[in-house]
Specification:
By secondary structure, the chain is an alpha/beta fold. It has 8 helices and 11 strands. It has a single domain, classed as Carbamate kinase. The longest helix has 25 residues.
């Protein structure tokens, strides 16, 4: 396998599957099966999940809710998603630990960098919940931060689109897909890969990002094994 240690970033919306909101058990099972395949190849897997399928802080704030309060609710939503994915992975026989940036000791370990790395070395999947533990930061920022802290080789951003395009492919049929693109070109073209804070942090630490379609069976395995799937962002 090309990558030994990865950080998989999943959006909360991805867990909805065919539902309008919440968590689709079938989609969870599919993701757990895909992750299990690469665990069997001795790939170390850490995961960050968003919470948009339950509550999005920015949306709450736009409706008049105080931003810090709204973001705290969003961070708790990521812990709920983390618990759901942990259960699905353990049903597949994959040992999993959930660590939270917010102290919820009854349901998750506190985030401790050295402990997270030790879990990975022992073949356990580590799910990072609670974002960064601070308001005003997205789960994209949390994903990049945790990836750097644990020494991940790459960030794999699993979406419903098969890569990065010149414009929204769901709205523009003439959109051009990039197989490879530099950090500078992403910024110059104004492409939306991650929020600016997360993207800049990844660029400064020379951490490559691969955006791919997580919902196509076998894609995760192909990406980790080095096949040209999705779009790779590098220096």
């Amino acid at each position: 396998m090309q990558y030994k240690r990865i950080l998989l970033k999943l959006s909360g919306e991805a867990l909805m599957g065919s539902l309008q909101y919440g968590i689709d058990p079938l989609r969870l099972k599919e993701y757990a099966e895909e992750i299990h395949k690469i665990i069997q190849k001795d790939v170390q897997v850490a995961i960050v999940i968003g919470g948009g399928n339950i509550f999005r802080g920015v949306a709450g704030a736009s409706r008049g809710m105080e931003r810090v309060q709204a973001d705290n609710m969003g961070m708790l939503a990521t812990v709920i998603n983390g618990l759901a994915l942990q259960s699905a992975l353990e049903n597949e026989g994959v040992p999993t630990r959930l660590q939270s940036a917010i102290n919820i000791n009854e349901v998750a370990e506190p985030f401790i960098r050295r402990k997270a790395i030790r879990h990975l070395e022992k073949g356990r999947v580590v799910i990072f919940g609670g974002g960064t533990g601070n308001p005003y930061f997205t789960t994209d920022s949390a994903a990049v931060l945790r990836a750097i802290e644990i020494g991940a080789d790459v960030i794999l951003k699993g979406t419903r689109v098969d890569g990065i395009y010149s414009s929204d492919p769901e709205k523009n049929t003439d959109a051009i897909k990039f197989d490879f693109i530099s950090f500078e070109d992403v910024l110059r073209k104004g492409l939306k890969v991650m929020d600016t804070t997360a993207f800049t942090l990844s660029q400064e630490n020379e951490l490559p990002i691969i955006v791919f379609d997580m919902n196509t069976k076998g894609n995760l395995f192909k990406v980790v094994s080095g096949e040209k799937i999705g779009t790779k962002v590098n220096l």
